[in-house]
Amino acid sequence: MTFSQLTSIALVGLAQRTQEAARSLAMLSTEHRDRAIAAIAAALEEATPEILAANAADCAAAVKEGLAAPLYGRLKLDAVKLQAAIEGVRDVGALPDPIGAVQIHRELDTGLILKRVTCPLGVLGVIFESRPDAVMQIASLAIKSANGVILKGGREAMRSCDVLVDAIRTGLTEAGVDADAVQLLTTREETLALLRLDRYIDLIIPRGSNQFVRFIQSNTQIPVLGHADGLCHLYVDAAAAVDKAVAIAIDAKTSYPSACNAIETCCAPSYCPNLLASGGASPASPSGGTASRCRHDRSSSRCPGQPPSAPPLKPTG
Question: Considering the domain boundaries, does residue 223 fall inside one?
């Protein structure tokens, strides 16, 4: 028997356990699931030293292997970033229950009622790259929505993801929830085998480049929640205050430049061409770079040359 066959057999068992855990999770009350999320946050806080040590080892290995700077920025997890992620887990627990919401209730005919009610999907397969904080986000959202989840992080974040998932499973156990609701894969072979488990996985969510998403879509019969190329533009309307526009542009680009949603382009009307042109004072950004200001007089809320009553941007569809 080949290694690939052994991997597939082992993964089937793991997926079956996750499916069973997801079914039991779907039967729990909102309050029980929220307690589980709170327990996950507490377990993550307790495991903070182990998480940071594992991430430091991942980062050291990444430096040796010459990992690209943007990927390294996503990989690094310091105490501040970790605590913010844990608070994000608690925020998920405070959200309204997404299950059982009636989105459509319509009488089509006498005695014939059409309803659309939200329900769990079942088991999610989420494949992502070098962001260990994504483990906490995805797992908490899965528990909140009563779904099981099988996670596959990038090889460069393997140690971090392993410790994080251990803590999450500990929290689930302490809350009386089947820990098999959250699983972690660690090898490429497991990822390829996961894509063939259409009997157990209900949705694949790949997070990565367009090329990566297309590869996933081309190699599975499981529904894929994919995406095209990102478009991260900031549009500055003619009526916008320049001070605010500059501040937003700086924050949106420099607060976390390695993130996939950092802005790429700032769009402004043609009659306000120097909104972010060089020439003014350059405030330092959190990332150590600089951002130039509009060279026009910043005491005015409008750029010179702007029409006196520019129409608002209208939707095209």
Answer: no
pLDDT digits (tens, 9 = 90+) for 46-58: 999 999 999 999 9
- Chain-centroid distance of CA 190 in Å reads 22
**Does 247 fall in a domain?**
yes
Residue 71, in any domain of the structure: yes
On whether both 156 and 270 belong to a single domain, the answer is no
Q: Please report the pLDDT score of residue 229 as a whole number.
A: 66
Residue 38 and residue 142 in one domain = yes
The number of beta carbons lying within 10 Å of the beta carbon of residue 115 is 9
**Does 286 have pLDDT greater than 60?**
no
Which residue has 């997070």 as its token pair?
Answer: 207
The total domain count for the chain is 2
- Among 187, 218, 249, residue at a domain's last position: 218
Question: Which pLDDT tens digit goes with each residue over 202-222?
Answer: 999 998 778 888 899 999 999
Residue 63 near residue 179 (C-beta atoms within 8 A): no
